[in-house]
């Protein structure tokens, strides 16, 4: 029998993810506060719901793709828990703080529902193309139930451990990414000042111990390495504002557990500066221009 998914939050990421559920044979009941997002979901074959509670009513599973923890908590506590079928599965794919993720899952579990946190790696293109990576936190039972639904929207589904561990993996990974991008940018900027050609520095460092994904898959210098947002005026890709959001989540989580994250703190300050310069919407590899003093 066709499974029905309530999909709440059909923005840049959720719109493509819901379209992939539809392509893979699921029925989708869509709800978003934005009329535009709802109209696009309908055009892909989703049924429009009048509220999050209406979407969840009678659904086999609820997927949320919302901006932040406060939205996730209010949608589940305010609407979904009360409306969902007994036995419905909940999957929150938003990037939110670990503490809220754990609280929302605990409240769902107390009411007898299985729930996972399943944030994603991959941007809008991966959401549209069904090639996201999902990092999943939750019990073995909840993970096994979630896997086929997540597989319809992504290429990899990895169990990271108990509730909240998907969010923990996501923010630790993105803190590492933010720090390696800053380090890659400052190294290229300094190499240039020392009279080293960027391509020559790339040829050496990309096969030496300074190599990282930020250098060899996403080089911040235009015309060097494989095609990346730097070749396109730093448009598209992963926005400065989203990197800043993830770094804030990382440093807040670090403070809560007493982890020492000096590199994460430095990356957060630098991305805040870049955002303050009005660059929140451009790709995060734009950091190189700030460090070059452009
Ligand atoms: P978005 O702002 O485009 O979409 C969020 C949608 O949620 C909007 O359409 C908004 O109207 C809707 N919404 C907000 N509150 C709501 C509510 N109470 N009920 C129903 N709908 C509501 O954001 P996005 O880029 O799609 O990102 C969604 C999540 O995915 C975020 O947590 C983000 O950090 C994460 N993420 C984004 C990217 C990316 O490249 N955009 C990559 C990885 C993860």
UniProtKB/TrEMBL annotation:
Keywords: Branched-chain amino acid catabolism, NAD, Oxidoreductase. Residues 4-161 form the 6-phosphogluconate dehydrogenase NADP-binding domain. GO terms for molecular function: 3-hydroxyisobutyrate dehydrogenase activity; NAD binding; NADP binding. It holds the Pfam family NAD_binding_2. One of its GO terms (biological process) is L-valine catabolic process. Its EC number is 1.1.1.31. Pathway: Amino-acid degradation; L-valine degradation. Transmembrane segments: none annotated. The active site is at residue 170. It catalyses: 3-hydroxy-2-methylpropanoate + NAD(+) = 2-methyl-3-oxopropanoate + NADH + H(+). It is an enzyme of class 1 (oxidoreductase). SUPFAM superfamilies: 6-phosphogluconate dehydrogenase C-terminal domain-like (SSF48179), NAD(P)-binding Rossmann-fold domains (SSF51735). Residues 164-291 form the 3-hydroxyisobutyrate dehydrogenase-like NAD-binding domain. The keyword Oxidoreductase applies. PANTHER family: 3-HYDROXYISOBUTYRATE DEHYDROGENASE, MITOCHONDRIAL, 3-HYDROXYISOBUTYRATE DEHYDROGENASE-RELATED. Belongs to the HIBADH-related family. This is 3-hydroxyisobutyrate dehydrogenase. It comes from Sphingobium terrigena. The lineage of its organism: Bacteria, Pseudomonadati, Pseudomonadota, Alphaproteobacteria, Sphingomonadales.
């Amino acid at each position: 029998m066709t499974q029905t998914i309530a999909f709440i939050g059909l923005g840049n990421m959720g719109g493509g993810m819901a379209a992939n559920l539809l392509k893979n044979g699921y029925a989708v009941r869509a709800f978003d506060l934005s009329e535009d997002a709802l109209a696009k979901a309908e055009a892909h074959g989703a049924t429009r719901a009048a509220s999050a509670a209406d979407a969840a009513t009678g659904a086999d599973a609820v997927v949320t793709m919302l901006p932040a923890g406060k939205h996730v908590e209010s949608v589940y506590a305010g609407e979904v828990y009360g409306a969902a079928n007994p036995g419905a599965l909940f999957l929150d794919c938003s990037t939110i703080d670990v503490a809220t993720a754990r609280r929302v899952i605990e409240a769902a579990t107390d009411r007898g529902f299985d729930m996972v946190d399943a944030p994603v790696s991959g941007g809008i293109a991966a959401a549209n193309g069904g090639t996201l990576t999902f990092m999943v936190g939750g019990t073995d039972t909840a993970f096994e139930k979630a896997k086929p639904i997540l597989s319809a929207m992504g290429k990899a589904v990895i169990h990271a451990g108990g509730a909240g561990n998907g969010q923990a993996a996501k923010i630790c990974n993105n803190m590492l990414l933010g720090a390696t991008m800053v380090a890659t940018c400052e190294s290229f900027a300094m190499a240039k000042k020392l009279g080293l050609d960027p391509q020559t520095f790339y040829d050496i460092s990309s096969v030496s111990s300074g190599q990282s994904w930020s250098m060899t898959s996403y080089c911040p210098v235009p015309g060097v390495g494989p095609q990346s947002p730097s070749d396109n005026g730093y448009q598209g890709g992963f926005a400065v504002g989203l990197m800043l959001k993830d770094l804030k989540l990382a440093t807040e989580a670090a403070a809560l557990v007493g982890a020492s994250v000096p590199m994460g703190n430095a990356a957060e300050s630098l991305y805040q500066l870049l955002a303050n310069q009005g660059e929140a919407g451009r790709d995060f590899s734009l950091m190189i221009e700030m460090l070059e003093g452009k």
